[in-house]
Design goal:
CATH topology of the largest domain: TIM Barrel
Number of domains: 2
CATH superfamily of the largest domain: Glycoside hydrolase/deacetylase
Shape: elongated
Order of helices and strands: EEEEEEEEEEEHHEHEHEHEHEEEHEHE
Structural class: alpha/beta
Largest sheet: 6 strands, parallel
Strand content: 25-35%
Number of helices: 8
Number of strands: 20
Radius of gyration: 22 Å
CATH architecture of the largest domain: Alpha-Beta Barrel
Length: 363
């Protein structure tokens, strides 16, 4: 077996590029592609002759003229070649959204007050989110549990009387599968394809019933973000071709990285987005978990990205969990919506515009 001597450095297979990665012209995105090869090699990328910009690294400009692009790398010295598939998502950079995990309590409240509430926004939690949207046009993605912690409510009990109102607000609200219920932790870490698919379909079916297709989308965040390849395939089969996580690595934080390897997680930490070509899944990294961040640290925490080699996130995904809103929760955060507003203000002040991921990363 011959050992490969050329290795793509940027883009690598499955990379999703954006406008911050190069220069956009009428022909597409032009950027510098790089390849590692033995010193003294003669390397071409899409027939463009490279220059050895540093020892063993060869670079040449390439243009990505469509959503899916193929780069042909060839070592003219040895005859060895490699193929890289890279994507160009022109609307990905300088966008943001608010993503909320573990949602069930606001739905239980609305169901309990269905004969009293004239609007879903009579619920205090949704009322707060609508206020943020009205002030900043923020788009909000809600990842749902099927069953409440006390097991005294399921989505099947949510009434369909508010369906028209949900659909009227589909321009800024999304709902998706998160997990059957909150406990145990990491419920899908070793789950089968059938188990994950069943729970996905269950929650998707309920969202369709009470809110309609307009609030669904091809992106979600799995509870605890831990699943094997079979589980991720089940989510993909259910329609979730975009899957969110933290992709922690080289630290003591929970990985929240689905089935990705250490090397892939390190790549995600730098790029924030990457597609597993074999599974047809795009992974996206969340930028900040607001309930784990003090309000006064939100701006400085986001600014700190700018000091890293990879720079500010191209797309800012703010994540927070529903339960921290409620005074009876053990870790209640009375400044819940103040944190959200501080995060949204940072995004606005730094030129980020609200957009759902399905509006930004798919063809």
């Amino acid at each position: 077996m011959t050992t490969a001597t050329i290795r793509p450095v940027f883009p690598v297979n499955g990379d999703v590029l954006h406008v911050l990665d190069g220069t956009v012209t009428k022909d597409g995105l032009t950027c510098m592609a790089g390849v590692s090869a033995p010193p003294g090699s003669s390397i071409t990328i899409n027939n463009n002759v490279t220059k050895e910009t540093e020892e063993g690294i060869y670079s040449a400009p390439v243009t990505l003229g469509q959503y899916k692009n193929t780069l042909q790398v060839r070592n003219e010295t040895s005859g060895e070649s490699a193929t890289v598939t890279a994507y160009f998502a022109p609307h990905f950079a300088k966008k943001y959204r608010l993503s909320i995990d573990d949602n069930i309590r606001f739905l239980q409240d609305i169901a309990a007050h269905a004969n009293v509430y004239t609007s879903v926004f009579d619920n205090p939690f949704l009322k707060g989110l609508k206020k943020i949207h009205e002030q900043y046009q923020t788009k909000v993605h809600l990842n749902l549990f099927y069953q409440s912690v006390g097991e005294d409510f399921t989505l099947s009990e949510f009434p369909g009387i508010f369906k028209k109102e949900w659909q009227e607000n589909a321009d800024w609200l999304r709902m998706s599968f998160h997990a059957y219920k909150e406990f145990p932790d990491a419920p899908y870490k070793n789950a089968s394809f059938d188990t994950v698919k069943k729970d996905c379909d269950l929650i998707i079916g309920e969202i369709k019933r009470f809110a309609g297709d307009a609030l669904l989308g091809p992106v979600t965040t799995l509870h605890w973000g831990e699943v094997n390849v079979e589980g991720a395939r089940a989510m993909r089969a259910a329609g979730y071709k975009g899957q969110l996580g933290y992709f922690n690595v080289d630290d003591d934080q929970p990985a929240v990285s689905y089935y990705l390897t250490v090397e892939q997680r390190r790549h995600m930490k730098k790029r924030f987005i990457w597609k597993d070509e074999a599974e047809d899944i795009i992974f996206i990294r969340s930028s900040m978990v607001l309930d784990r961040t003090k309000k006064e640290d939100i701006a400085t925490g986001m600014d700190a990205y700018g000091n890293a080699p990879s720079g500010l996130p191209p797309y800012v995904d703010y994540l927070i969990h529903e339960q921290y809103f409620y005074p009876d929760y053990t870790a209640y955060q009375p400044d819940y919506f103040e944190k959200i507003e501080a995060a949204v203000m940072w995004a606005k002040e730094h030129g980020y515009e609200p957009a759902f991921l399905d509006e930004c990363i798919f063809e």
